[in-house]
Amino acid sequence: MQFNVLTLPGDGIGIEVTREAVRVLEAVCRKFQHTVILKEALLGGIAIHKTGTPFPDETAKLAVEADATLMGAVGLPEFDNAPPEKRPEKGLLGIRKTLGVYANLRPVRTYRALMDSSPLKNHLIEGTDLIIVRELNGGIYYGTPRGIEGSGDEERGTNTMTYTRAEIARVCRMAFNLARQRRKKLTSVDKSNVLETSQLWRKVVVEVAAEFPDVTLDHLLVDNCAMQLVLNPKRFDVLVMENMFGDILSDEGAVLAGSIGMLPSASIGDRKPNGAWVGLYEPVHGSAPDIAGQNKANPLGAIGSVAAMLEYSFGLTTEAAAVNNAVEAVLNAGKVTADLKPAGTPLTTEQVGQAVCEAL
Ligand code: IPM
Ligand code: MG
User: Fold this and answer.
1) What is the number of the ligand closest to the CA of 251?
2) Is the pLDDT of residue 273 over 90?
3) Which residues are known to be catalytic?
4) How far is ligand 1, taken at its centre, from the CA of residue 289, in Å?
5) pLDDT digit string (tens) for 62-84?
């Protein structure tokens, strides 16, 4: 195959981890005789510095043209007090919306070699293998009215959580399809005891369930789900939820995996005419400005995102498995960055990337 991949390293450690992810992408393409044509563009804080906006038109154009997009991370402390339009995060929300990637797949699994990296007891997390499907194009992240108005005691901030039936149905369908390929269990997470959006969510997910009689559906309130995730993570197969619930619970999921640096993600939209999914691939972690540029960051979340790209955008399941197996071999060999190795001498970002290439 020949494919065009756009990289958006972004800010902070995004740059370092994307470099290693690209190295692995090139290695897997060499091994399996595919041709990857790479382009790079600006997103986030670096884009604000260079062009005045977090999501330049040129980046949007290149992302729409590319077969898939690989992102690092966005966010820089100097923009912490900037207005919403001038924040790096706006770039990320912009590209997710522009590409129409409405389902964010965040797999969480525990590796035997990392069992002791999690603060949770081994017997609780051993064998965890779940996927959080987070709705990514709607909800409170995008809803209007929004803003801050007025002054003094009457100064008021507003955000709106809103979903249409169509927005709920399409992400639930994606989650049911995923569950169908796995252990056939879907948990829908909501706050239907309080929120109308959640009441509609529950109604729609139950309707969609009729199309998937082979998948068992259950419902959990989001607060209870937060607790169950650490009490009994093995009970979960696929979970589906609205945007902000998914943002919050996926960071909790990272604790099961041992480090947030381990978590890859795939953001998927509809299929293109050629059958491939529109896809944006990004590690779950942020830009970690405190360790940026120090060659310390864990590149495995970004490398796992390359595996997800191979699988979902290009249908290359053997190649994706080769990358995941290489990651596992590197973990088993104890070749890990500092986040996974509080004692002893950790490897650098670059050394871990190199080790994955060699294992491949
Ligand atoms: C994530 C991040 C982003 C989000 C931020 C950086 C805007 O936390 O991808 O989980 O909230 O979606
Ligand atoms: Mg998040």
Assistant:
1) 2
2) no
3) 141, 191, 223, 247, 251
4) 15
5) 999 999 999 999 999 999 999 98
Ligand 1 midpoint to CA 246 (Å): 10
The reply to whether ligand 1 has any atom less than 6 angstroms from the CB of 350 is no
Cα gap 237→245, rounded to integer Å: 17
CA-nearest residue for atom 9, ligand 1, is 284
Residue nearest to atom 11 of ligand 1 (CA): 247
Cα 23 to chain centroid distance, Å, stands at 20
What's the rounded Cα separation, in Å, for the pair 300 and 259?
10
Q: How many Å apart are CA 169 and CA 107, to the nearest integer?
A: 21
CA distance 251 to 259: 10
Asked if 1-105+262-360 and 119-144+154-257 have one fold, the answer is: yes
Closest Cα to residue 304, out of 252, 259, 266?
266
Residue 85's pLDDT band (cuts 50, 70, 90):
confident
- Relative to beta strand 156-158, strand 147-149 is antiparallel
Q: What is the pTM for the complete model shown? A: 0.95
**Domain 1-105+262-360, what fold?**
Isopropylmalate Dehydrogenase (3.40.718)
Ligand 1 atom with the smallest distance to the CA of 247 is 10
DSSP per position, 284-345? SS---GGGTTSS-S--HHHHHHHHHHHHHTT--HHHHHHHHHHHHHHHHTT---GGG-SSS-
Environment class of 157 (CB within 10 Å of its CB; exposed 0-12, middle 13-18, buried 19+)? exposed
Local structure of residue 84 (DSSP, 8 states): G
Cβ of 252 below 6 Å from ligand 1: no
Spacing, Cα 247 to ligand 1 middle (Å): 6
Give yes or no for a contact between 357 and 23, defined as CB atoms under 8 angstroms apart.
yes
User: Of ligand 1's atoms, which has the minimum distance to the CA of residue 96?
Assistant: 12
Closest ligand 1 atom to 265 CA: 9
Domain 119-144+154-257, CATH number (from 3.40.30.10, 3.40.718.10, 3.40.50.1010, 3.10.50.40): 3.40.718.10
**Would you list the domain boundaries of the chain?**
1-105+262-360, 119-144+154-257
